[in-house]
Amino acid sequence: MSGTIYRGPINPNPKEDEARIVIYGYIPSLALGLVGIITFILVACAHTFWLVRKKRTRTFHILILIGALMEIGGYGARLASHKRPFVVGSFIGQYFLIVVAPVLFTAAIYLSLTLAVNNFDGAGNLLVISPKKVLAFFITADVLTTILQIIGAALIGSSESARVQGKESFVTPEQANDILLAGLAIQCFSFLCFLAVLIIAISRTYRQRTTLQVGNEDQYRDLKKLLWVILITSLLILLRTSFRLAETAQGFFGYASTHESLFGTLEYLPVILALTVWAIAPPSKFLGTHRGVSGTTELGRTTEKARR
To answer: A Pfam family this protein belongs to (predicted)?
Structure first.
């Protein structure tokens, strides 16, 4: 495809760890790398605070904290690429970390929904499937699709480098791009299915108020607020995933892939905003200690009520 034609600088004398092309398609920005590291450190600190203070939602914050640390490593690799853009290892490292980290964020989002319905009496009726199935199905789908994306990205880097050097590769860049595209497309579809489940749940909170029996009006309002926070953060992550899908469909060296401004606006910004929203309004803010299922503190316990 025309979108995969490399038009960037050529490295005439590559070192052992270098390619003859800049696989990014551009020289990564020093400013974006620094901003990425600093802002993800800040949200990591915020979620560490909630992790220590709120045992009830500890698993949620652990997932986000690990993802934030991966983002820090990814933007650190981009900083290294600013100085030495032809190094293949830095590109693969940043791509792996920045692509995989949102899997942990979406897992946290899935968990937050199960926390919501399991910690308000009667709220289990909001979901069209059980909380246990929400976690099992959507997390499994995310893991499998991310593996496809990593394989595709790695093959693109090696095949494009081989093409520029005039060597043969066992897959073409076009074939590798198709693997990456398949992973992103399935991931996007899976997340849209989750959004449908979430939107139905929000709709039912308004249509079934008299049958929910979630307690007093304060508890009812907290349930609605938590569901809206989940929706807002989900839409931000969906925006990021949709960008990756469009970028890959256009081609690895197409316009979207070779313009870092789009990466900053549609990859970095939605993710950092989602993590900031959860830092300001964590699930524990809406799940008071007087509410819901006694002893619900961890991922395994949140599904206990659903199994009964």
So the answer is: RTA1
Q: pTM score, two decimals?
A: 0.84
Q: What are phi and psi of 10, to 5 degrees?
A: -110, 135
What whole-number distance in Å separates Cα of residue 238 and Cα of residue 242?
6
Q: What is the 3-state secondary structure (H, E, C) of 93-112?
A: HHHHHHHHHHHHHHHHHHHH
H helices of the chain, in order, are 30-53, 58-83, 88-118, 131-164, 173-207, 209-212, 217-250, 260-263, 269-280, 299-302, 304-307
Quick check: helix, strand or coil at residue 18?
strand
User: Tell me: the pLDDT tens digits for 12-63?
Assistant: 888 877 878 888 889 999 999 999 999 999 999 999 999 999 888 999 999 9
Residues 6+ apart with CB under 8 A from 49: none
Question: Please, what's the b/e burial string for 266-280 (b: 16 or more CB within 10 A of its CB; e: otherwise)?
Answer: bbbebbbbbbbbbbe
| Ranges of residues in the chain whose predicted pLDDT is under 50 | 1-2, 289-308
**In contact, 236 and 267? CB cutoff 8 Å:** no
Q: Per CATH, which fold does 20-303 belong to?
A: Rhopdopsin 7-helix transmembrane proteins (1.20.1070)
DSSP state of 5: -
- For 158-187, how does the pLDDT look when each residue is reduced to its tens digit (9 = 90+)? 776 666 566 777 777 778 878 888 988 998
Q: Locate 283 and state its tokens.
A: 């699930």
State residue 281 phi and psi, 5-degree precision: -130, 70
The Cα 107–Cα 46 span in angstroms is 19
**Cα–Cα distance, 258 to 254 (Å, whole number):** 6
Determine the Cα–Cα distance for residues 199 and 216; give it in Å rounded to an integer. Answer: 23
